[in-house]
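>> received
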Amino acid sequence: MTHLLRFTLRNLSQDELGSPAEQTGFSGARNQPKVVVVMPAFNAGRTLRLTYEALPKEHTNHIILVDDGSTDDTIDVAKSLGLEIFVHNRNYGYGANQKTCYTEALRAGADVVVMVHPDYQYDPRLLPQMIAPIVRGEADVVLGSRLKNRLGRQAVADGMPWWKWLGNRWLTAVENITFGLRLSEYHTGYRAYSRRALDACDFRAHSDGFVFDQEMIAQIVATGLRIAETQVPVRYLPEASSVSFIGSCVYGCSILWLVVRYLLHRYHLWPSRQFTNLSGRYRRL
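>> returned
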């Protein structure tokens, strides 16, 4: 399996990866922000090393792994790679994992934080494209879309279950209408945030579950921050983690409830602190 995975990486075209200038979006070491990669891990021992080895180290200043109660050798592999490791005392959930990731990344002095899943589903080599809009000052958040342009048709062929593709498309349409955006996908796990975005969002107030990602988007929209997206190819492997059909249905319902709460907040029918911009509450004289 390892040889097959490496072959898949090598065959990504340079057009998909972009030129060095397009990848970075900046030149000169003095202009480079501190980029911290965070890996929310749960039983990722079989794919963590592959993910780490594919990361472009020249664009990464620090790597943090947060283990959410794994029962495999995730921690041992992370130690062998020399990562900074934080371990939950039990499994708290995907959202809780991200809260620890972002808290520790900000504490480490990050200017840009990139979430890279250690299950090797998203190509780590595309990290330069993920951070480029933030570095250029064009966006505060960047989403790596599996469904943008031609990849929308390719995702199922690459292994995305048809029901997950259909649900993704439908929920994305609902969220585009709700948030007034025109994104190709909201449900990606490949995300980059500026420090400004994480400082402005009260991410610790969000869910400990999978809906955390969408609650972040809702707060980002309410705050008026800028969102960009870049296309990313994806691969579905037996070793990779995946949400079940029932879990996906629960996730979909939680997003619809989020949409209702956001609309109630936007129209001042049920204001929620969850969608409030913390930095907008005060100003310096």
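>> The CA atoms of residues 54 and 270 lie 45 Å apart.
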